[in-house]
Amino acid sequence: MTPQNPSFADEIRRSFDGQAAMTLIGASLSRVDPGIIKITLPYRANLTQQHGYIHAGIVTSIVDTACGYAAYSLMPAGSEVLSVEFKVNLLRPAKGKSFLARAEVIKPGRTLTVVRGDVFGIDESGQKELVATMLATMMCLRKD
Amino acid sequence: MTPQNPSFADEIRRSFDGQAAMTLIGASLSRVDPGIIKITLPYRANLTQQHGYIHAGIVTSIVDTACGYAAYSLMPAGSEVLSVEFKVNLLRPAKGKSFLARAEVIKPGRTLTVVRGDVFGIDESGQKELVATMLATMMCLRKD
Amino acid sequence: MTPQNPSFADEIRRSFDGQAAMTLIGASLSRVDPGIIKITLPYRANLTQQHGYIHAGIVTSIVDTACGYAAYSLMPAGSEVLSVEFKVNLLRPAKGKSFLARAEVIKPGRTLTVVRGDVFGIDESGQKELVATMLATMMCLRKD
Amino acid sequence: MTPQNPSFADEIRRSFDGQAAMTLIGASLSRVDPGIIKITLPYRANLTQQHGYIHAGIVTSIVDTACGYAAYSLMPAGSEVLSVEFKVNLLRPAKGKSFLARAEVIKPGRTLTVVRGDVFGIDESGQKELVATMLATMMCLRKD
After folding, report:
1. Which residue of D60, D114, D138 is the best one to mutate when testing the C interface, meaning the one whose CB has the most C CBs within 10 A?
2. ipTM > 0.95?
3. Is B130's Cβ below 8 Å from some Cβ in C?
4. Which of chain B's termini has less CB crowding within 10 Å, N or C?
5. Which is it for the CA torsion D8, D13, D16, D17, positive or negative?
6. Contact status of D48 with chain C (Cβ, < 8 Å)
């Protein structure tokens, strides 16, 4: 997929750094490509729910962010991206030493872009297991 | 709706207190009734996304938690509740002095319970505005 | 909710009559109000799945149509409505002598409108039971 | 993925033939493999909505059926499959000479199975275009 905004990667990195919620939970951008974004989250005990797994809302936070930027990477310069809606299926308990959210645009569009995102739990030995999957609609807002 | 577990309210309060992620973001339980749960979240700058609104994942965190406990309140003693999946429509920017997630069971079931949740932003004057709505499936796990 | 298009009701009735799929399954419009639409579907054996209940896709057909027109009723003259996405929870087997889909706009918008829809099964004695619920996003396309 | 029920393919074909709704719309099973199902639907004018495209509910009918049998193909003998919920993103107008729904299990489970489904429109020249994508939860009911 071809980006319309030549400086999309810089803008995504700058925007990500401005997301206080990503800083709070300790997430970082690990891949920025046209239509594809990866975000990494190390396990932290303060992100868990009552059974000791990462909270579904925190899992959602990283994959929603990844989906948003995946859509944004294909939008024209001067746009803003907005999450319209997403659905998340929680496939397994979110356990692991770290977590990887990977988002990929399925259908870019002038106004709406549809993105699929997966979250993997990664154990000590580097083994990945799919823990959640998202199907999301993102919207392009033109500032002008 | 009639609870099967007479001590559901105590168990929900204890369970909520055990959710590190809820402590991290500053959320608190504000209503615990059979089939209905409310959670309150004061605005904090460290919960925001790049435009200064509360991150969609944080909004999801409180309404998913509310939906889970709303389902749990109607489950038999000795059960555990698990989020199977949820869909969230983000209706307006999540701005406000505080936020209220309200969840209500639409259809309780032996194995699966369907719950609707709304999140309101509340401004200085106490005015409420719907910012997101969730439709979720929760699962009952029997420990025995 | 206030309609922007004074002839919305006539246009919805005309548009509905042009939906061959609605004719095929025997559905009819039973209420057209600003932001609220009802569609009725009598039981027919040729609409069933393998267990003899109305097929989930047919249930979806009537509630998607109702949600689309509920959104359309609030759009300006000269618009077209498009289903962006929907999620359906199937709460009970779709059994009954007839079925009622009821859609109501939760959040109208210039481009996107969010609509909730419920489908009820109605038995011989007129008793209604909720069999499915939809949460949908509809888009306004301006012809000009 | 390994089927538990050696006669799953025969049972799926027999069950599909018992779906009156599939007969009504003219759909047929075109592939039955463990965890993967394809259903084909030729274009018919009586399946359309007001703009002449195949109705979103009909699109949903074929992909929900495909997702259900993809899940069923991995269930033990003597089970029944039930659609719990699905979300559909409608990516492009459903136009074509015929339509192909392809479903694949993402995560099989004892009680719940998560399935992804895609619907393609196929034109005169055999060119395929993705028109919709589904993310669905299916439930296994054991008869005994």
Report:
1. D60
2. yes
3. yes
4. C
5. negative
6. yes
